[in-house]
Amino acid sequence: MNETNLQIRLARRPEGAPQPGDFSLVETAPPDMAPGEVLVRHRYLSLDPYMRGRMDDAKSYAAAVGLGEVMQGQSVGQVVASTVPGFAPGDWVLGGQGWQRLSAVPAGGLLKLDPEAAPLTAWLGVLGMPGTTAWVGTTRIAVPRPGETFVVSAASGAVGSVAGQIAKRMGARVVGIAGGPEKCAFVTDTLGFDDGVDHRAEDFPARLAAACPEGIDVYFENVGGAVQHAVWPLLRDFGRVAFCGMVAEYNTRPPAPGPSLMQVVRKRLSLRGFIVMDHPDAFAEWRRTGARWLREGALQYREDVVQGLEKAPDAFLGLLGGKNFGKLIVAID
Ligand code: NDP
User: Fold this and answer.
1) Which of 43, 42, 62, 37 is nearest to 52 (CA)?
2) How far is CA 225 from the centre of its chain?
3) Which positions ≥6 away from 250 have C-beta within 8 Å?
4) Is 276 helix (H, G, I), strand (E, B) or coil?
5) Helix (H) and strand (E) counts in the chain
6) Is the shortest distance between the CB of 130 and ligand 1 below 6 Å?
7) What 3 state SS string does 103-142 have?
8) Would you say the CB of residue 156 lies under 6 angstroms from ligand 1?
9) Does the pLDDT value for residue 159 go beyond 80?
10) 151 and 219 in contact (C-beta within 8 Å)?
11) Model confidence at 61, in pLDDT bands (50, 70, 90)?
């Protein structure tokens, strides 16, 4: 093959927002194809927010791109030559060979595509990883019920646009948050969401509150930052949040103060608040279990008993300052 390969490599780790100099464009010889491999000419490359994370040398759910390595990413391409039965020149394939024109790939890393089934680029977006992300978030992570208010940020984007449409099909009232009037019109007029709210508007929090008069039952989080701040107070009791991503914070250096909720995404954390009074059946259950363990000597406890009702205020202030040691009790007389 006399065609050269063209690659975009990570030249430098970005500080904050990536700069053009963080990438290098390299022309190289075409890859050699080993037995079991397929030579692919990539036609369409997917660019996704997760790639920003791969540019950092930080512990995450996926390995970082090494300095000098080809940037990672999925692409749709066409087979040029093949050593593998079932892959013939001209076949369309989906694979993760990164930001480059040509690659020699083990056939196991490729998914053969039917070009008649859907437009080729759809396999990178609506039918690909982002569409699947929307499907998982709405059907497995934070599931909307009919009549509930479902809010999604980055609503006109690859994930948000699909998440909102699935939630709509599930019977929810769907409000999309997007940047600018054009994107907001798209989410209502084209995607069929019930409302679109512009997060760039000065009175965005008030507009969001007006669009969600009953509050928010399910929030599909794609953005973080100021959008999250506006959503948070509107969440209803027993609301659910699917933490999908926080693209507004990917370039923030140093990180904003406070715990980074992006850890919820990276470590797939489940956070669930609860109030014991919502579980009235648990009281009798625990009385039975705890009393038995006490009798058996299997449960230890300590009490801090203050004598005299008049000591109650002081003892209470001490409790808030950590002065008590064990369950604080006032012996009244
Ligand atoms: P999009 O195509 O939606 O592109 C990103 C969009 O985010 C922008 O167009 C912009 O939309 C919005 N945005 C960017 N910066 C800001 C900001 N500072 N404030 C508010 N909005 C901002 O991306 P995807 O649909 O591919 O991804 C959406 C999210 O899903 C990302 O956070 C991504 O990391 C996450 N993701 C998570 C996956 C997972 O497995 N957990 C898998 C795939 C994606 P607008 O102008 O409307 O604000």
Assistant:
1) 62
2) 14
3) 49, 52, 53
4) helix
5) 9, 14
6) yes
7) EEEEHHHCEEECCCCCCHHHHHCCCCHHHHHHHHHHHHHC
8) yes
9) yes
10) yes
11) confident
How far apart (Å, rounded) are the C-alpha atoms in residues 164 and 151?
A: 8
Q: Name the residue with tokens 């760039």.
A: 200
Neighbours of 5 (CB within 10 A): 18
Nearest atom in ligand 1 to the alpha carbon of residue 225 is 19
pLDDT category, 170, cuts 50, 70, 90? very high
Residue 74: band (very low, low, confident or very high) from pLDDT cuts 50, 70, 90: very high
**Burial class, 272, CB count within 10 angstroms (exposed 0-12 / middle 13-18 / buried 19+):** exposed
Does 196 sit in the ligand 1 pocket, CB within 6 Å?
no
Q: Could you tell me the two tokens for 305?
A: 């008993």
The finding on whether 224 has its CB within 6 A of some atom of ligand 1 is no
| pTM given for the model | 0.93
Residues 13/57, Cβ–Cβ less than 8 Å: yes
**DSSP characters over 14-29:** -SSS--GGGEEEEEEP
Q: How far apart, in whole angstroms, are the C-alpha atoms of residue 305 and residue 332?
A: 10
Task: Tell me which residue of 1, 2, 6 sits closest to 27, measured CA to CA.
Answer: 6
